[in-house]
């Protein structure tokens, strides 16, 4: 029979180390990385209830693009001064004058107009007509605001909720519409 060779102390210690190493518990799997936090969804800023005030000196600034036109009384009995492509209208019917701006606003929003002339400024509550997509306010033809618009120094400014300001010239079409409404 064949006898196995004798182990040297060095080989014996290496084998003992190998056996010890094999007895160590396996390492635990690394903890899963935390789920990434979703980036916040950007939200649109809430619309402002009233348009930003016109910055700068509106009495000398460049006028909004557009000209005034006039529609004489038709079958509906209304007379209108129309600025631009209908961006703003001054309409007379039954001794009431309505100033309206075309635009879209958020549902249930508070709507206001601010009219500035060389005589001062006036804030007015307004309404919204969903059929025509128009913001408007109505005042009696005798209201002082209409005179302030007619006699303003060549221009007046109309600011409306959720709409860009309109800086428009005073023109005979406006004065004639207001005068016709007063009878």
Order of helices and strands: HEEEEEEEEHEEH
> Main beta sheet, described?
6 strands, antiparallel
Distance, first to last CA: 139 Å
Q: Rough shape? A: elongated
Strand content: 25-35%
| Cα Rg | 39 Å
What does the oligomeric state look like here?
single chain
* Poorly predicted spans: 47-51
Q: What structural class results from the helix and strand content?
A: alpha+beta
Helix content: 10-25%
Average residue pLDDT: 82
Number of strands: 10
Task: Please give the order of strands in the largest beta sheet.
Answer: 1-2-3-4-8-7
Helix count from the secondary structure assignment: 3
Structure, described:
18% of the residues lie in helices and 30% in strands. It is α+β, with helices and mostly antiparallel strands. A 6-stranded antiparallel sheet has the order 1-2-3-4-8-7, covered by helices on one side. The radius of gyration is 39 Å and the shape is elongated. It starts with 8 loop residues before the first helix and ends with a helix. Mean pLDDT is 82; it is low at 47-51.
Indicate the topology:
Layout: H1 9-23, E1 68-71, E2 79-83, E3 88-93, E4 96-102, E5 112-117, E6 120-125, E7 127-129, E8 134-140, H2 144-150, E9 155-160, E10 166-169, H3 172-182
Notable traits:
3 helices, elongated, 6-stranded antiparallel β-sheet, single chain, 4-stranded antiparallel β-sheet, 183 residues, alpha+beta
């Amino acid at each position: 029979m064949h006898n196995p060779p004798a182990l040297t102390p060095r080989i014996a210690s290496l084998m003992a180390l190998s056996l010890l190493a094999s007895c160590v518990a396996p390492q635990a799997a690394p903890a899963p990385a935390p789920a990434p936090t979703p980036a916040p969804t950007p939200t649109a800023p809430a619309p402002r209830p009233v348009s930003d005030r016109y910055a700068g000196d509106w009495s000398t600034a460049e006028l909004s693009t557009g000209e005034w036109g006039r529609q004489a009384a038709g079958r509906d009995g209304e007379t209108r001064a129309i600025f631009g492509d209908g961006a703003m209208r001054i309409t007379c019917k039954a001794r009431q004058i309505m100033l309206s701006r075309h635009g879209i606003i958020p549902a249930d929003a508070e709507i206001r107009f601010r009219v500035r002339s060389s005589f001062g400024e006036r804030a007015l509550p307004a309404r919204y007509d969903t059929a025509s997509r128009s913001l408007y306010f109505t005042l009696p033809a005798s209201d002082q605001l209409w005179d302030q618009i007619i006699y303003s120094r060549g221009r007046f400014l109309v600011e409306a909720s959720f709409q860009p300001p309109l800086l428009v010239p005073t023109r005979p079409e406006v004065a004639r519409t207001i005068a016709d409404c007063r009878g």
